[in-house]
Design a protein that fits this description.
The protein is 54% helix and 12% strand. The chain has helices at 3-21, 24-49, 57-74, 79-101, 108-126, 152-174, 177-183, 190-194, 199-225, 235-248, 253-278, 285-299, 305-309, 377-384, 407-411, 430-435, 446-450, 455-472, 487-499, 517-532, 544-550, 568-573, 575-582; strands at 136-137, 142-144, 147-149, 227-228, 337-348, 351-362, 366-370, 392-397, 400-401, 415-417, 505-509, 536-540, 553-558, 561-566. The protein binds adenosine-5'-diphosphate and magnesium ion.
């Protein structure tokens, strides 16, 4: 049994026994920690993992609380029905707010969440039918299996069962195809989109998920206190929720529970202690909080969880057995034209980065794209893979015009790439990083992931990732953290990730950069093997020795234009190329 399991067992046993032995006051504290944890978990997903900061979660808590308060007191609706109603209302409103605020980028997004957080708070306070600032009282108690939950002691079990279920669902979600996609959002989404992740949709999903958890917490809160008023749903509370997630460790689900625990207990303690110390009453704890937080952010930016995790080394998870492998796409016939650029053009403001470039490549061919720095090679990759829209011209892939398609749509047609500057998720294992490449070959969504009903598909995706890692020679590193690999190995890992997309055309942007001599040789060997299996490869590379021995043909670019095209021998002897680029290299 691992140490983590033992601690989990002790924790569960404590939660089970606590209401039987602890005094009322401490039960209340535990209940609050449970309620706050549920909200903070949503923030872990949204902010810690997804990189989207929200100050507005308290408003969703209020939405859940006010829906049930109003419907149960005015219309006598059962709290279980109002739970469904509150979640449905939150769903609709979060969807709307998500659509308008997730378009905001950088620090405009947190500002946007503050704006609607404040608006909803004032809405609660100024609505006559919601009791204005006095609120709504005399909510009914929830009854469950005939037991009326009219005390904190009884309520404890409901709160913590739901909190633990939320925790489990979140844990499951993060450990899945969708979870990998969510974790890939933080890097800006370029890589994720290139492998078929709909990043805009993913953002909305985690936003709504976090809002639903907040709303659930609000429902519980309302029936625990049996009274609601606007105060606990203000922007201050929204900030505290965010603090909890950050203090605990915004990238870990348990961090939410730890953060909620620490802040709740500390606040209680300071509220008792400080007025005695200072001899006058006031909210002094907020000042201490502020100072502590600044210190924490300086000393332990990732919160407390990483410090805790150190004591709980997790063993490498064995790969789940996959009974089937993923289906593969039909390969093009030998000699079929796979890629064709016709007068492709890209301008950045006044800069002409790619100027009426035309070339084509056949299936099974390795085509080298060379040229000095700034010639426009990476821009060509971005045009072909749909990362950038072309200013003019056409790009065709397997006979279909693709320059009008998104990169998401292009990867599903069988084209995958690596990046000149590696795009990986350093905290994730090599296996998980590579599995992102197979994203568009699975279709199980967030709900099946949260319930872990997608295990068969997940096994296939991971098996595919392991197979591709084996293929490129990284079979021994699958459990390593990707950030710990040497740069050369990270580049090779990117090739494995691209292969996971089951491509017929592979675009490699300077794959040999940073590789040692021996590594370059094995890379060349790998690319030859791929070619012999019918793969087409478009290769940008500066190491001329490497390129000339490997490629079938070359296209030379300079200042965005095609300078020359031909066999390696012809290019090496071409006086124009020699002058512009190759210089002394022979
Ligand atoms: P290469 O890969 O051949 O070194 P690039 O395609 O990266 O060249 O760049 C071609 C030219 O386009 C350079 O002058 C570069 O500064 C410019 N460029 C590339 N990407 C952008 C961009 N996103 N915005 C503005 N200019 C860019
Ligand atoms: Mg480049």
């Amino acid at each position: 049994m691992t140490r983590a399991r033992i601690v989990l067992g002790v924790f569960l046993a404590f939660m089970l026994v606590a209401p039987l032995v602890l005094p009322e006051f401490q039960i209340t504290l535990l209940n609050y920690i449970g309620l706050y944890s549920i909200v903070a978990m949503g923030l872990v997903l949204l902010t810690g993992v997804g990189g989207l900061t929200s100050f507005g979660q308290a408003a969703f808590v209020g939405l859940g609380a006010y829906t049930t308060a109003y419907l149960t007191t005015v219309y006598g609706v059962s709290p279980w029905l109002t739970l469904v109603g509150g979640l449905a209302l939150t769903f609709v409103i979060a969807l709307f707010l998500g659509f308008i605020s997730l378009r905001l980028s950088g620090h405009y997004l947190p500002l946007g969440t503050i704006a609607w957080g404040i608006s909803l708070y004032f809405l609660f306070g100024n609505m006559e039918f919601l009791g204005g600032h006095t609120g709504i009282s005399s909510l009914p108690a929830i009854s469950l299996f005939g037991i009326v939950l009219d005390s904190g002691r009884k309520f404890h079990y409901l709160i913590w069962t739901l909190a633990l279920l939320a925790l489990l669902s979140m844990h499951n979600l993060l450990d899945s195809r969708s979870g990998r996609a969510i974790r890939a959002l933080k890097g800006g989404g370029l890589m994720a989109e290139s492998f078929g992740v709909n990043t805009a949709r993913m953002k909305i999903i985690i936003f709504v998920y976090a809002a639903l958890l907040a709303s659930l917490s609000g429902w519980l809160y309302a029936h625990l206190l049996r009274f609601v008023n606007p105060t606990p749903f203000s922007i201050n509370a929204g900030i505290e929720y965010l603090f909890m997630a950050v203090v605990g460790g915004a990238a870990s689900v348990w961090g939410a529970v730890i953060g909620a625990g620490i802040l709740t207990i500390l606040k209680q303690w300071l509220q008792d202690l400080l007025p005695k110390l200072l001899g006058q009453s006031g909210n002094f704890e907020m000042i201490v909080f502020g100072v502590l937080l600044v210190l924490l952010l300086q000393r332990a930016r990732d919160g407390i969880m990483p410090l805790v995790v150190r004591y709980f080394p997790s063993p490498n998870k064995p790969l789940p057995p996959a009974t089937q492998s993923l289906p593969t796409r039909a390969r093009p016939a030998a000699g079929e034209t796979v890629l064709e650029l016709k007068g492709a053009r890209k301008t950045f403001g006044g800069l002409l980065a790619v100027n009426d470039l035309s070339f084509s490549m056949d299936s099974g061919e390795i085509l080298g794209l060379i040229g000095p720095n700034g010639a426009g090679k990476s821009t060509v990759f971005n045009l072909v893979t749909g990362v950038l829209p072309a200013t003019g011209g056409e790009v065709n892939f397997r006979g279909e015009r693709i320059d009008i398609l998104s990169s998401r749509a292009i990867v599903t047609r069988g084209m995958a790439r690596t990046f000149q500057h590696v795009h990986l998720l350093p905290d994730m294992s090599v296996l998980e990083n590579v599995a992102i490449g197979a994203h568009q070959r699975g279709d199980m969504g967030v709900i099946s992931a949260a319930l872990h009903m997608e295990r068969a598909e997940e096994a296939k995706l991971l098996a595919e990732a392991a197979r591709q890692l084996e293929r490129v020679g990284l079979g021994d590193s699958i459990h390593e953290q990707a950030g710990n690999l040497a740069l050369g190995q990270q580049r090779i890992m990117e090739i494995a990730r691209a292969l996971c997309a089951d491509p017929v055309l592979l675009l490699l942007d300077e794959p040999a950069a940073g590789l040692r001599f021996q590594e370059k040789r094995s890379l060349a060997e790998l690319l030859r093997k791929l070619k012999s299996e019918g793969m087409s490869i478009l290769l940008v590379e500066h190491d001329m020795d490497f390129v000339m021995k490997l490629v079938d043909r070359l296209v030379v670019m300079d200042f965005g234009e095609k300078l020359a095209e031909g066999l390696p021998k012809e290019i090496q002897a071409n006086p124009v190329v020699l002058e512009a680029y190759l210089g002394g290299v022979k």
